[in-house]
Amino acid sequence: MMVLYPVVLAGALFLMWKSAERGLGARGRTWFGAWVGTGALFTLSFLTGFSIGVFLLPVAAIALFWLAVHAPHLREAAGFPLGSALVVVGAVLLI
Question: CA 15 to CA 41: how far, in whole Å?
Fold first, then answer.
């Protein structure tokens, strides 16, 4: 199960690279927000592991692949680590 997370990230990076190479994709605040939400969902799936994370991973992977094709630019994709950081900070504050 834990092997799937890096595989999904590598697949999304490959899709981003190919989509950007072909000149596809949109830009803007809306796409940045979508990347933030996807980063949060992916990290929440990772942190919850074998409980609810098993059910969240397919949703997060589909969202990640969809965004990798539709908004492959690095400026918008910078929202992914921001969303991840927000979930981690929220989890630390809850402890």
Answer: 19
Of residues 36, 57, 59, the one with CA closest to residue 47: 57
Alpha helices by DSSP H, listed for the chain, are 4-21, 29-48, 53-70, 74-77, 79-94
Structure tokens given for 85? 């950081």
| 22-45 residue pLDDT tens | 877 778 899 999 999 999 999 999
Other CB atoms within 10 Å distance of the CB of residue 71: 25
Cα(5)–Cα(1) distance, rounded to whole angstroms? Answer: 8
* Sign of the CA dihedral with 50 first, then 51, 56, and 58 last: positive
Provide the sign of the torsion angle of the four alpha carbons 25, 21, 68, 34, taken in this order: negative
Considering the entire predicted model, what is its pTM? Answer: 0.91
